């Protein structure tokens, strides 16, 4: 067990965690994009990959401001979420249903990141580390936007998944 005696040390711990998490995503997102069938979803994964590179850069900047090298520590939460993503990639069945599974996995990642960045930003604010807080906020905003885009894509994909699985409900018959 590592000792975390101060809020400052806890901020560093959180940022290192996020650094490792984002680096895992750099490897996972291309695989998810490749597995996606819906063009909007493929484009979404590709855009998120580009953004994620920027997120890694911001975290490296934050660590530099705190006098530290750009190095993370294992983020077990993201490891699990990436495994869930791999499960979605391997889903057998209609393409649209797999796409729906991929969006689910991607949104779990987004929500985890939003929670992580929100927590770290709050620590930075409490410590008066305004430059670090601003970097974390910038990424938090982007994660929120990505999550909204995924929600919009999911409406189309879910409808496609319903049709692909033959689950579209027949129009209700009027009762006598
Ligand atoms: Fe990110």
What key attributes describe this structure?
single chain, 176 residues, mainly alpha, Ferritin, 78% helix
Account of the 3D structure:
The protein has 176 residues and is mainly alpha-helical. The chain has one domain (7-164): Up-down Bundle (Ferritin). 78% of the residues lie in helices and 0% in strands. It has five helices and no strands. The protein has helices spanning 7-35, 39-65, 76-89, 95-126, 130-164. The longest helix has 35 residues, at 130-164. It is elongated. Bound molecules: fe (ii) ion. Residues 22, 52, 55, 113, 139, 143 line the site of fe (ii) ion (FE2).
Summarize the SSE layout with pairings.
Elements: H1 7-35, H2 39-65, H3 76-89, H4 95-126, H5 130-164
Bound molecules: fe (ii) ion.
Nutshell version of this structure?
This protein is an all-alpha fold and 176 residues long. It has helices spanning 7-35, 39-65, 76-89, 95-126, 130-164.
């Amino acid at each position: 067990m590592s000792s975390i005696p101060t809020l400052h040390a806890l901020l560093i711990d959180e940022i290192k965690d996020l650094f490792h998490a984002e680096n895992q995503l750099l490897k996972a997102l291309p695989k998810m994009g490749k597995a996606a069938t819906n063009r909007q979803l493929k484009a979404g994964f590709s855009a998120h990959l580009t953004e994620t590179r920027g997120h890694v850069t911001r975290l490296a900047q934050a660590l530099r401001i705190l006098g530290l090298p750009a190095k993370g520590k294992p983020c077990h939460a993201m490891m699990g979420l990436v495994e869930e993503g791999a499960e979605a990639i391997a889903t057998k069945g209609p393409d649209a249903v797999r796409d729906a599974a991929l969006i689910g996995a991607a949104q779990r990642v987004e929500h985890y990141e939003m929670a992580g960045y929100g927590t770290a930003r709050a620590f930075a604010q409490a410590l008066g580390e305004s430059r670090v807080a601003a970097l974390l906020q910038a990424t938090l905003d982007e994660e929120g936007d990505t999550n909204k885009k995924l929600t919009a894509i999911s409406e189309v994909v879910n409808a496609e998944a319903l049709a692909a699985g033959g689950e579209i409900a027949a129009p209700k018959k009027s009762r006598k």
